[in-house]
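FW: tagging you since you asked about this chain on Friday. Here's the raw sequence from the shared folder, copied in full. Didn't touch anything.
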Amino acid sequence: MRRVLLLALFSFGVCARTLDVYLVDVEGGKAMLTIAPSGESLLVDVGFPGFNGRDSDRIVAAAHAAGVKRIDYLLITHYDSDHMGDVPLLMSKIPIRHILDNGPLRTSGKGVEQRYKSYVEARNKIPHTEVHAGGALPVRGVSIRVITAGGKHIPSTGARNPFCATSEVRPAIPEDKEDNMSIGLLYTLGKFRMVDLADLEWDAERGLMCPNNPVGTASVYVTSVHAQPKAGSPALVHALHPRVILMDNGPKKGGAPESWPILRGSPELEDIWQVHYSVLGGKDKNPPDDFNANLETACEARWLKLSANRDGSFTVTNSRNGFSKTYAQTRVP
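HL: got it, structure written out here
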């Protein structure tokens, strides 16, 4: 009887905990730390290499603030420098238990071969798993489905996507082929859903979402390619119907003025939150200051934190000033 009671209490504790997500400021790269209700941690990408270890230090600081002493799973979405950063350096600063990625390098150019070689040398020292579109990450307490990986995506099943007809067709950018290798994820905790496609570009977004929408709707959308114009197709953004958009931009990278009307025009959108004030966007194409974690170009490396509940409600908090907003229980996808 005592064993049953303890198991019940443990189960209740897991169910009661939130899904916490930290968008770490890595100046227009990507580093997103997630703590599942089980307590397991997932770090998606590690920002830039160089800068005297700036980004690895910022990741460790965010992890410690979240009470995380080790990274259970590190996922590298693709092998561009602003995402794969310096994994060996990060491993020297915080333990990493398992690495996930999309497997062998499939592209060339921009120095990716040497970056990949150094990364693999570090990766081979700990357990490693290659993920595939249609699979799921092994993080306990939350469902994280892989919807794109290695240039492939889940089948285009589901309801017909009406935004395909009004979303222009743009050809792939040959020199950006590595972007379209990105691992894209769908996070689900009860009624809460969040989509993050890393650096998947406009043409590949259409390939995923047209003619049918296999993803459905999402409470939160994390902007693709840091909200640069080469991503953020209405066929994706508007079809997701996000209530909140999170932008992992830098002061002069991402947050493009051309992207703002598409993001702002998404049906049912309530707010956009940004890691940085966009110098390119100016006052008219940035959210109010309370929704920006870093207002100055020489920033203080503040992060955004999202905490989601199983009933679909969630709260976003700005670590710069403590401002937060709660979004009430939402629709069933």
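FW: Residues 100 and 178 are 17 Å apart (CA to CA).
HL: agreed, and The mean pLDDT is 92.
FW: great, closing this out.
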